[in-house]
Structures are given as structure tokens and as C-alpha cells.
Amino acid sequence: MPVEASDFVTAVPPPPECLPATAAIVGVKVYLVQQALGIVGHKERYDATTVAAVRAFQTAHDLEVDGVVGPLTWAALPIDEPYCIDQYVAQPTVPLEASAEQRIEAMIDYAEAQLGLPYIWGGAGPMGFDCSGLALQAVYAGGRVVPGLDTNLHVGADFRTTHVLYESDLPHVPLAQRRRGDLVFFGSPITHMAIYLGHGRILEAVRPVIRVADLPADGLSIQPMVVRPFPRPGEQPEPGSR
Q1: Is the peptide bond before 126 cis (omega within 30 degrees of 0)?
Q2: pLDDT class for 148, splitting at 50, 70, 90?
Q3: pLDDT, tens digit, 9 for 90 and up, residues 79-129
Q4: Longest dimension (CA), the chain
Q5: For residues 171-191, b (16+ Cβ closer than 10 Å) or e, as one string?
Q6: pLDDT at 240
Q7: How many C-alpha atoms does 40 have within 13 Å on its Cβ side?
């Protein structure tokens, strides 16, 4: 379907609430809790070790001992970031009348500014990202949102933003027709995604850091369609992957 002006925005609202750190989420909040408690190697999973460490901390600091990091426990932990760090969303850096090329470059500029930051499973910034969290925020920087998707959903331990993006109504084109700014997906079922930079290069978030690499990604199979968040006027890519 042709791209419409209504597909773009000049501001992206934050997700509706700050989520407590529990086994229901992954991402930056869990990462910061584990860093503060000296938990190493658990890869942002709020697992039994994390719960036990939180409960021990709460006991030592006369807090309610429930194993959940809400605002009071967060404030007592040695964390400099605000409790609502997970409400961070990148804002568009282009005007509503921006061209497709300007939006693509805004998206890539945002992603390139994150190079070298740590990979954080479920991370959507600002101090670390996973593959789809980086792509989601970069698309925001280009001035587009994906209906039914926000960063609160993204941090869900059982939620897969890669699948939602690939199955969305954002325009899709065959892999052979890929160009700079397209989103490339890997694995079957999908396990990874990246931003295509052109000339066989991709920008991706992989453990341990965000990097630029060659296509394909670590030998993974590539999905037959790419997602094109910012088509040029007059293009009519397929609306969705189905």
C-alpha cells in the first residue's frame, strides 16, 4: 500500500507505566538490578538467583521481602538511573514532511550512535539494547511507530518483538530487493534481526556489544522478506509478510 503522511509522527509517547523488576520482564531494569547486586552471567533473566539476592537485600535494608524490585527497593539499591528508565523512548529527529531518505538516515544515525554499547536481552535503551529493541527505537527516531507495539511489551520475558515486526503491516519487499534502511530477519523461526546499511553490511545488537557486521549474521539463515519502514513515495511494497 502507498505510504501516507499519517503513517509518521513527530513525537512518540512513552509506554503507559513503569514495570517492577520481576520474572515477567527482561531488559535494562533487570540488567541494572543484577549489576547492583553483583549477579554475573545470568543474562538479564530474573531467575531464582536474582530473586534470592533481591530478598536478601530487602531483608538487610528493612524493606518488604517479596523478591520484587519496586520503587522503594530500587531507591535503596546503588543504581543511579531513575526507576522509570524503562519508559525511555527515542524521539523523531526529522520533521513530518521529511523524505524517505531523511527518515532512513535518521534511523541509521540513531543506531550508529549506539555502537559499542552492551547487548542487553530485552534492552531498548538508553544504555543497552537487544536486536529488536535497537531496531524499534531507531524506527522511532525516523518518525514511525508500529501499532500494538511499545517498549513495555518489548521487555516481556515471553514477548518476541522480532516476530511482531516481521508479521506487522509495515511494508515488506523480497530480500533480493533490499536496500539501506531495511530490516533484515534471521533464523527459522526468527531469532535475530538487524538494520541493513547497504553494500552487504548490517548494524546489529549481539552479545557482547552493538556492532557493524557482514551479511549474513553469524551463518544464520535469512528470512525471504525484509521490512521497509520508510518506503519512497510511489512504492507499493507488500503490506505485511503473509
Answers
A1: yes
A2: confident
A3: 999 999 999 999 999 999 999 999 999 999 999 999 999 999 999 999 999
A4: 63
A5: bbbebeebeebbbbbbeeebe
A6: 61
A7: 1
